[in-house]
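Recall from the previous lesson that a structure prediction takes nothing but the amino acid sequence as input. Here we apply that procedure to Ig-like domain-containing protein from Polypedilum vanderplanki. The sequence below is the only information supplied.
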Amino acid sequence: MLCKSNIRLQLNLFTLLLALIHNGSTLPPFIIKQHDGREILYKVASKGNHPKPFSLLCEAAGDPMPRYRWTKNGEHFNLTEYGNRIIMNSPNGTLTFLVPKDEDEGIYQCFAKNKHGFATFSPLIVRKSYLEGFKDDSIQVVEAVAGRPLKLECKAPNAYPPASVYWMIQTRGSGEIQSIDDARKTVDPDGNLWFISVSDDDVLKSGEYYTCAASSRFRNEYKLGIRVQLKVIHANNEKEEKITPIVQYVSAPSIVSLRGQRTELFCIYGGSDPLHTRVIWKINGTTINYDKRIKERNFGKSLLIRDTRILDRGLYSCEIISDSKETANQSSLINVDVLAEPYFISYPQSIVAIENQTKVVEFTCEVRGLPEPTIIWTYNGRVLNITTSNDNDNELVTSTQSSEISRERLSIVKNKLTIKDLMKSDIGNYGCNATNNLGFAYRDFYLDIVKPQTFS
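The prediction returns the following tokens.
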């Protein structure tokens, strides 16, 4: 099983064809298949169940065909220690875990090498998924005053990825369940169930319970927690409590979202009649126009932003407006900042240069991100540098140290790499690696130099 397992296919067929049709072709390794995401989830089979194999993709092209190796947590990963439990899928370098175990968690990285260069794949974080049971799954009797708001607490169980917590109505014995779809009831992000105002209609039939549950989409399973029997009592000030709107739960006053992810803001109110109370959402003082990407949920008590963008940054407000003349409007403010992992606007393409004819090659790597990313260029898996030795003044070399030096043959200026007066030693696998404190974006490409074609 794969999480975030969209596969990146990167293959420049035109340049590959040019490189292979001539005599004595040379082609450094370059990546054609790897995971687009950085995290891979897997399951460990419970007793009596069949194992759930998973794979780590690694495939490159080159001439000659590259050889592969893997590291785990920065150390050489020796397949022979695992027998047939973990195998490499020849002729590519994909690893398949036939019988996953707890100890398979770690950071894995694949490398492909031939005599012309070295391709480095993005590291993969491999984590075991799990969903524990609730610590409290007891039956509780809760008394609530009619007309007043109510909170039923539910503490999520330990899980990875974090479980989705929700409430439902469960019938004792038959196990029948019903979803809760009611403007007067809302579940907050912590898994607590809020009643705007309790009424006699909230008392369930005999044998039915308000039940807290947690589910794991990846594992396709759920666990049940506390079950609640609700008893409603009546107080003298019931009418007054019904018309007094109060804020029950609001998202933190300042939150940080990531570009491309889902953002949901909550503004749950209570103590009022939902038929005569509404929430108006605004950004920077302007009422929000809803569309497919931004819409209300939970009967207006939450605002969902799908595929969050940088332009979604701003000061959001939720205004609780009641039709009753006895109440005043209330407003809560939520400042949303949006950061972004590095992402490509454009990335370098592989080049097949003609020996003694192509004088200059340029590679441009245009990247965005918040905070602004730093770009590092690599050559055959190492940070690109230029020797300062007089003996090798015109040679392109690598080292483990980055360099801002601009020499006669090679120039690195921010997002552009330029190589002049090409030499055979320039053949290899290059990479643009953009990083900030949130993550990285990496794209590899190759430079090949071939002899001119002659036709008889």
